[in-house]
Automatic annotation (TrEMBL):
Ranges of compositional bias, category Basic and acidic residues: 415-435, 451-464
Species of the source: Aureobasidium pullulans
Amino acid composition bias (Acidic residues), ranges on this chain: 436-448
Protein name (record): F-box domain-containing protein
Superkingdom of the source species: Eukaryota
Organism phylogeny: Eukaryota, Fungi, Dikarya, Ascomycota, Pezizomycotina
Region annotation (Disordered) ranges: 415-464
Length: 464
C-alpha cells in the first residue's frame, strides 16, 4: 500500500513528472533519488535542448561538462554560440599598466580564440554528443539585439556575466556571426562528427530591408554551405535563418527553415508580398541571404506557411515546386487581394497548377482596403483535407464561395458601407466558409491516423 508520494512505483512517478509543469521539474528532482532519476531527463528535455554559450573558457567548459553528462548530454539538440567579441583595441598586453575589467576580459577572450582553445573545447563537446548518438544543429546567435537607442535585448549565454560582468558589450564589442559559425563547423570536422544542420539568429529592424547581408562574410558562408553552382540545394542538412525583431519572444521571431532530410520548407511570420511596408520581413535576398534562392531552386515535397502575410507574389513560389509539392499547410494566413480576381486566382493555382495530396487550413483571411473575408476561423480549429479528390473538391467549392461573397459584400466597391470587419450588419458572426465533403466518413479515419505525424505547430523557441 502506497502511504506517501515518495514511495510511489516508478511508473507512477514518471506519469506525475510528465504531467508536471516544466518549471516544477527542478523541485521534483529534490524529492528523492528515485524522483531525481525519473525527473532529470524530463528536466533536460524541457530546459537543455537548445542551450546558449559564448566564446570564453568558462562558458565552453560548461558545454563540455553538459554534453558529458549521462542524462543531460543526450537531451542537447543544438549548440548555439554568441557572436559578439570584445574589440581588439581593448586588449592590453602591457602588464605594468593598470587595466580595467574590459581590457582583462578582452585579453582573456582574445587569447582563448587566438590559441584555438575554443576549437578544442567545442570539438570535445561534439565528441561527447557523438558518443550519445546525437547529431546537433550548429547555431550562431547575436548576443545583443539592438534596434534603436535604449531598445536593446541582451540574450545571455552561459558564462555571459562571468566574462563580461558590467561591461556594455554593445559599445565594447562587435558581432561576428560568420566567424562564430566557421568555428563551430571547424570544431565539428575536428571531432569527426557531422551536424544535422546549421542555423543563424540575427536581429532584424523593421525599418531596414537587410539582415543577413549586413553581416560580413555571412552571405557567402551560407551560400557555400547550401547552394550548388546550378542553384539547387547542396546537402541534406537542415538550414535555418531566424530574424529577431525585439524581445526574445516567439512573436518577435521570423523563420525561414529548410528541412532537407524530408524536403520541407517552413516560413513563419514572413511576408511574401510585392508591397514593401509589411510588419514582417520580406522574402528577399538582402534579408534571408542565399536561403531565398534555395526557396526557389529546391524541389520541396512539403511547404508550411504559418502566420504569414501574402499576396499574388506567393504564386511564383508555389508554381516553382509544382512537380514536387504534395503537402501544403496554411496556418493563420492573411492574403491581401488588391484585385477582384486575386482570391479566386489563388485557389485556381492550388487546384490547377499543383498536384496536392493534402492541404491543411487553420484561420485564413482575405483582406483589402474595403473589407475582410475570413474562412476556416480560429474557433474551427485545424482543418486537414486528404486525397487529391477531396483537395480538388474543396478548392472548387472555395472558388465558387469567394465569387459569391465578393458579389454579395461588394468587396471591391467604394460606395458600399460595411462594419469594421467588412461584414453585413445583420450577420454578427461574419462571413466564413464551412466545408463539408460528401465522403467525410471515408476519409475521417485516414485523417485521424495521418494527422498525428504532421508538423503543423508553430515554431518553439526553447531555453530562451
Amino acid at each position: 500500500m502506497v502511504v506517501s508520494v515518495s514511495s510511489c512505483p516508478t511508473e507512477i512517478i514518471q506519469m506525475i513528472a510528465v504531467a508536471a509543469d516544466p518549471t516544477d521539474l527542478a523541485n521534483l528532482r529534490l524529492v528523492s533519488k528515485q524522483w531525481c532519476a525519473v525527473s532529470s531527463r524530463l528536466f533536460g528535455l524541457a530546459n537543455l535542448r537548445n542551450p546558449r554559450f559564448i566564446i570564453s573558457p568558462y562558458s565552453l567548459q560548461g558545454l563540455v561538462d553538459l554534453t558529458a553528462h549521462p542524462i543531460f548530454g543526450p537531451c542537447v539538440e543544438s549548440v548555439n554560440v554568441g557572436s559578439y567579441r570584445l574589440k581588439k583595441h581593448l586588449v592590453n598586453t602591457q602588464p605594468h599598466l593598470d587595466i580595467n575589467h574590459a581590457n582583462a576580459a578582452a585579453l582573456k577572450q582574445f587569447r582563448f580564440e587566438q590559441t584555438a582553445s575554443h576549437l578544442t573545447l567545442l570539438a570535445q563537446a561534439f565528441a561527447n554528443l557523438r558518443d550519445h548518438g546525437v547529431m546537433p544543429m550548429l547555431g550562431a546567435f547575436e548576443d545583443i539585439v539592438h534596434l534603436a537607442p535604449n531598445n536593446e535585448v541582451v540574450r545571455r549565454g552561459y558564462g555571459y556575466d562571468e566574462l563580461y560582468g558590467p561591461i556594455d558589450v554593445l559599445k565594447c564589442g562587435n558581432t561576428q556571426v560568420a566567424q562564430t559559425l566557421v568555428s563551430l563547423i571547424e570544431a565539428s570536422l575536428n571531432s569527426d562528427h557531422a551536424p544535422s544542420g546549421v542555423s543563424v539568429d540575427v536581429k532584424w529592424d523593421p525599418n531596414d530591408r537587410e539582415a543577413v547581408s549586413l553581416h560580413s562574410g555571412l552571405y557567402s558562408l551560407l551560400y557555400n554551405l547550401s547552394i550548388r553552382n546550378c542553384g539547387c540545394l547542396k546537402s541534406p542538412k537542415d538550414l535555418t535563418v531566424t530574424l529577431t525583431s525585439g524581445k526574445d519572444k516567439i512573436r518577435n521571431k521570423h523563420h525561414l527553415e529548410i528541412r532537407n532530410k524530408n524536403s520541407h520548407l517552413r516560413l513563419i511570420r514572413v511576408s511574401i508580398e510585392g508591397y514593401e511596408d509589411s510588419i514582417f520581413p520580406q522574402l528577399e535576398p538582402g534579408i534571408f541571404g542565399p536561403l531565398f534562392d534555395a526557396c526557389y531552386h529546391g524541389q520541396f515535397h512539403q511547404i508550411t506557411l504559418s502566420d504569414c502575410e501574402i499576396d499574388r507574389s506567393v504564386f511564383g513560389l508555389l508554381k516553382t515546386h509544382a512537380r514536387s509539392l504534395r503537402h501544403l499547410t496554411l496556418h493563420q494566413i492573411v492574403f491581401h487581394d488588391y484585385e477582384p480576381d486575386d482570391a479566386v486566382d489563388l485557389f485556381l493555382v492550388l487546384r490547377d497548377d499543383l498536384a496536392l495530396y493534402t492541404i491543411d487550413f487553420e484561420r485564413f483571411a482575405f483582406s483589402n482596403k474595403h473589407s475582410a473575408l475570413e474562412m476556416f476561423r480560429e474557433d474551427h480549429g485545424y482543418q486537414p483535407f486528404f486525397g487529391c479528390g477531396q483537395v480538388v473538391a474543396l478548392l472548387s467549392g472555395l472558388i465558387r464561395w469567394v465569387h459569391i461573397q465578393n458579389t454579395k459584400l461588394r468587396r471591391f466597391e467604394d460606395d458600399e458601407v460595411h462594419d469594421h470587419n467588412g461584414h453585413d450588419d445583420g450577420n454578427e458572426d461574419g462571413e466564413h466558409y464551412d466545408y463539408e465533403y460528401e465522403g467525410e466518413d471515408e476519409w475521417e479515419d485516414e485523417g485521424a491516423n495521418g494527422d498525428a505525424d504532421r508538423d503543423h505547430h508553430d515554431y518553439e523557441q526553447s531555453n530562451d
